[in-house]
Amino acid sequence: MSTIATPLQLLSDHARLPGAAGLLDPQRLSALLGQEITLDRLRIKPTASVLVSYRAAGSAPTGVRGQALADVGWVQLVASRDKRDNVLRRAARSESRILEHTTADTGPYLLSGGLDSDPRLGREIHRLLGHLGDAALRVLSYNPGRHAVLLLPDSGEVLRLAARPLDGLLQVGECWRELGLPTIAQRRWRARRAVLIGEHWGQGDLAGLSRHPLSMPAATRLGEIIARLHTADVTECDLPPARIGELVPVTTEVVADLLPERAPQIERLSQRLRETLSAGGPPALIHGDLSPDQVLVSVDETAVPGEGQLPLRVVDLDRSGLGPRSADLGSWIASCLLADVEEQATAFLRGYARHLALPPSTELAAWTARALLSSALDPMRRHSEDWLERVVRRLALAEAVLERPGRLSLPVPAPAVPSTDGQEPLVPVSVEHDGRLLTVRRAWADDGRGMPLELEDGSAGSGRAGLRAARLDPATGQVTLLEPGTDPRLPALARVLAQHPSGTVVSHRPGKRAVVRLEGGGGGEVGEGGARYVKIVRPGRAARLLDAIGRSAAFDGPFRTARVLDADDDTVTFAALAGHLLHDGLPTADGIWRRAWRETLEAWAAAVQSSRNRLGTMAVHGPSAEAEVLEAWGERADAVDPAGAGVRGRATALARRELLRLGEVEQPALIHRDLHDKQVLWDPCAGPALLDVDTATAGDPALDAANLRAHATWRELQGIWTEEQAAVVREEIDRAGARSGICPETLAAYESGTIARIACVYAFRPRWRAAARALAASLDQTGSPAHPAPQNPVPAPAGDPTPLGGAATHLERSMS
């Protein structure tokens, strides 16, 4: 039976050096060095060497930047005796201490030392220490054998030491400053060509401050700056070529060697890049490695007058030079995709487009995919614990971007110098309150009292204080927070929390509903671990919840449903259900993911079939009603995100056209009407459970199947599910749909409607706003979804996967 290689085995096999696993395992390396360490950097040359840098675990005190010099070091395993001898000779000349951990004459040879004994940087560091004496240097960055960045706390300056002369970096930096572009001035330290010194500037970078309320305007301003860079006349400057490497990154060969099973995928991607990429056209001055973490920002608005509300400096110009403009744009977009801040990509491109026309989306997609491939090994080189998943995600993103350039979050086309009046999204990314930044999780349409907001206070820790409700005045943009645990239109919220002080608010839509989780207090029979959920609505509205539960009785049996424990005028209390929320995914390799979805869809099909003869006088929700829902959502979304109105408008028009082609529902059944992965819990022993049946009604079962299918596409686009997970879900939906007699054309029409509706709903959620625009763009000109159901679906493999071990973990559910 074949076994799946662990990440450590993959790295060791890639190195092809005896003893490599001892360097690549932090625990074994800690034992070798006699101290607990954390691996920082990793560089492997197969059959030749393995080089890592490390820092002492817990060595950086809170609030202090960087590491102490003595807490940073390197370890190298080298096959060549000549290279081993060269390292030891250099150390002897500078009187550095290097430990040799092997005694065999034939190698490989294992060496270790501190930063001051680095084989290529050690001499410069010794000179530096000789001049600075006992200065408390802090190490901000260390890439063994290549560079180190050190902070001088006394002067507030930063030193950069490299293994090669930095004349080119000085020259490029001087050109940037002559052009009036914001960067940090550097000069040689004591005439050393490989050591530069400059100001330590700012309080962070655009990556770390992406949730700051001024970060999006700063990204837009950066776009304008880079457009100026790209159009600058540098004919009088003797600039080097940008150091961006080959059009098809050489890292592709390394990834294929590291992950042999991915070799066919990498070859496909490489071939696509060969076919689509071109370095033609006049070269421009580019950054060469543009990303949010290369842009320093100052949150002190008075620090640099005249630079706007968030002054910035573009740094790390090592790769800057003459090259194709699209390389910078693709690099920026790729970085934002990986960080799940696509709105930062859109804001940047909006600023860029004010001064310089954007390339076609296909060209941008190609350069974005190239940047993703070029950086595919970064998680491994930085020794992230989940490096394997991150590498695979970058490959999947590169493939998805090439296949569907429309998923890129491009700004709405505009004149070269357009007006931006009314184009900014109404819902902010975050809100400042009492000196803290609260993240906007969700928002809803204005109900006449302002737009309801649900905020998250990441600094509040656990407890209900972490979730806050607020209202936004659309006319002024003013945000007013409600007192924690209160809502004037939901008086039961304060009452429930007064009765249960340890209760936790897990969801709160101001003025409409809230959910409070209560722990224990009812014994194990009450719910999973005795937990309960109290759903709070406006006075007199609880009866509607109970009516909906009564209408959806056909779901109870095929599914487990939440048992009602108590109810009054404005609350309904439910027992918690055991299970794993399908939204959070399960492994695919052992078949457990397929099993969970197959059991869920079989339960759904059974409920649909059993409900057909007991619908009574229930109103039927058909295609025309769904089209009306979609039209209303489109209007709401345009009000809060006018920049996305164009792409959403095209998507909703296409989807409504397909929906209105459908006839009336011939065989209505009970449908959930809002069925998606966050509504289903699954337990390997107890089976699937269904949540939130408030929207249940009579209708076309194809709508429920389409909801699930569209959400699979959305979760893949969000990066929450892998391509394989989404494909399994679609296969199981198609299998269940075929067995239930659902027409593929009907399923596709409803799925298009759901995709367009999701794009509208998520226009209210800042984190996903840009991705939602990309989802809308995924509908092609026929209004079809990107992954249509097959006309004759092939039954998915059956099998009986091994069940999960142990009891299923109960996940908190907002039930909203």
From TrEMBL:
<feature type="domain" description="Aminoglycoside phosphotransferase">
    <location>
        <begin position="218"/>
        <end position="353"/>
    </location>
</feature>
<feature type="compositionally biased region" description="Pro residues">
    <location>
        <begin position="787"/>
        <end position="800"/>
    </location>
</feature>
<protein>
    <submittedName>
        <fullName>Phosphotransferase</fullName>
    </submittedName>
</protein>
<feature type="region of interest" description="Disordered">
    <location>
        <begin position="781"/>
        <end position="816"/>
    </location>
</feature>
<feature type="domain" description="Aminoglycoside phosphotransferase">
    <location>
        <begin position="648"/>
        <end position="718"/>
    </location>
</feature>
<dbReference type="InterPro" id="IPR051678">
    <property type="entry name" value="AGP_Transferase"/>
</dbReference>
<dbReference type="InterPro" id="IPR011009">
    <property type="entry name" value="Kinase-like_dom_sf"/>
</dbReference>
<dbReference type="InterPro" id="IPR002575">
    <property type="entry name" value="Aminoglycoside_PTrfase"/>
</dbReference>
<dbReference type="Pfam" id="PF01636">
    <property type="entry name" value="APH"/>
</dbReference>
